[in-house]
Write a sequence for this structure.
């Protein structure tokens, strides 16, 4: 059995959910986890105006209340000319996967989330993404330079693989993030969509494991 997590690092509910998913993988260390990036606003070209920024703040407040994770609202509101394009940050996840495989990929995913939401960093900038990702990879024992990561992130093959992730998310019928599926016996089963606590996730996992034991 394997869990498939479909999300986007610049989705606020995915940010809050990351804490619970990390807790689940710690509680169930043999759990196989595959990450598919969904591209919630991949390819967006419109500059986020004041109204667009204000629209997101209530969502952030709800995520913060449930998860306890921090948000740097001031940096977000102060950023000028920001295009909320999530393709670059999704591609950074794919680049990390190309470099190091699935092991430790959730840590990279969450580091990118933390960079955007908690530190107010520009996660549409490839150099910023490289800096965040190499630190997260290094913490998991994978040594790669920022320049090496940036080259992988910039490569045509990485861009193509990112688009394949987006297509796979659609093919799996995922309409919102975060969503989790269970792959078992060659089939996909709905596991959970939206925010959930680690206790809820562990209980659901136990029920599904019982069905396929």
């Amino acid at each position: 059995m394997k869990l498939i997590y479909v999300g986007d690092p610049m989705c606020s509910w995915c940010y809050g959910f990351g804490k619970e998913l990390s807790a689940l993988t710690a509680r169930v260390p043999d759990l196989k986890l595959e990450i598919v990036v969904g591209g919630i606003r991949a390819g967006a070209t419109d500059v986020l105006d004041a109204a667009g920024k204000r629209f997101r703040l209530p969502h952030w407040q709800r995520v913060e209340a449930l998860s306890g994770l921090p948000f740097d609202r001031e940096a977000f509101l102060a950023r000028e000319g920001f295009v909320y394009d999530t393709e670059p940050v999704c591609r950074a996840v794919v680049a990390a996967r190309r470099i190091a495989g699935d092991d430790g990929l959730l840590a990279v995913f969450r580091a990118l989330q933390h960079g955007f939401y908690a530190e107010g960093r520009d996660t549409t900038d490839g150099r910023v993404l490289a800096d965040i990702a190499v630190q997260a990879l290094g913490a998991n024992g994978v040594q790669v330079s920022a320049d090496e990561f940036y080259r992988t992130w910039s490569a045509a093959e990485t861009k193509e693989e990112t688009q394949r992730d987006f297509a796979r998310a659609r093919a799996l019928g995922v309409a919102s993030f975060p969503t989790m599926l269970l792959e078992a016996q060659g089939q996909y089963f709905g596991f959970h969509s939206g925010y959930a606590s680690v206790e809820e996730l562990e209980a659901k996992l136990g029920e599904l494991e019982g069905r396929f034991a």
Notes: The mean pLDDT is 95.
